[in-house]
Amino acid sequence: MTRRTTSSEGLPTRIPPASPLEAAADAAVLAPSVHNTQPWRIRLHPDRLELSADRTRRLTVLDPAGRALTQSLGAALLNARVALAAAGSAVRVDRLPDPADPELVAVLRPVDGLPDAALATLAPAVRRRRTNRRRYGPGRVPDEVLRVLVAAAAAEDTVLVPVIRDDHVHLLARLTQQADRIQNADPAYRAELRRWTNREPGTGDGVPTSAVPHVDGRHHDQLPVRDFDTAGAGQLPADTTSDTTQTLVLLATHTDDPLAWLRCGEALERVLLELTTRGWVAGPLTQAIEVPVTRTQLRSALTWDAHPQSVLRIGHAPATSPTPRRPRGTVVENSPAPAGRPARDRTVAAARPVPDGRGGTTWV
């Protein structure tokens, strides 16, 4: 894992990390986040990494309770755990450790012991993962892959439910259409969406036009993906409409509180990395989760006692470009080394990255 900064061209550069905790920070900031808001702050100490929420980046209309923000932080936490495992470190994770500091989401400490081998195998996928909003080709995810995804979510205290029955698929489609109409009828929702889709070049956040379909009004979505093309400048082909032939999975938790949201974010990223490793792409389909009336109906129909937290559509599609990242210095803070310990020289020539073209690193 390598450290990323921003070049004069606005592109990420790579610098070898000075420690496993540096590598963990580098991986954390590559996590997917709602509307690519990247609502995190990271503080590095010699013996630990602290992950905190940046609530100035919360979507107040879409996400008033902070569910999606907390899930985004969970995805960053999972990436940090993956990086530490890949570096050969066992890790202790304290989630929501301080009731007096609700912004502090997690503290990670390398400890003696064996690293998590299953997490370590996911490290190459961290940089390759992308949220993909293209139209997916035919073919459902095989049962053996679905079993891997169910186990990956369960390892993070989350239930993954494949939506397979035709009546359940059509119910999810109907509720997604209903929620999409409700959201788009709200001027405040559309204004918030515009703020995160028409960012100035070089801002390092938000959903770029290269990552969204151009909407021309000719295509009908049975399962509508979110319309991020607020300025009519989407660069993906217009024929990226969703349909009910792809694979859909729902993630749910047994409680509905910040800890459950955080664990679901960890599960979500673990599932996405497992998919990336196997050559599949995925994208969120969360409108029915975000609108209370449709979320209630979804719970009663599909998850019963569990609380639905996220929906993914999964398939095969051409790769998309990576989404931008905020400058490292605005997100990661290094605490001073203890007195008497010399600072380590980390001056390394920056190298311009070459896209691997296989479809991998960043959501929404």
UniProtKB/TrEMBL annotation:
InterPro entries per the UniProt record, alphabetical: Nitroreductase-like, Nitroreductase/BluB
This protein's name: Nitroreductase family protein
Domain of life assignment: Bacteria
SUPFAM superfamilies: FMN-dependent nitroreductase-like (SSF55469)
NCBIfam families, A to Z: Rv3131_FMN_oxido (NF047509)
Region Disordered: start-end pairs: 315-364
Species: Geodermatophilus saharensis
Single GO molecular function: oxidoreductase activity
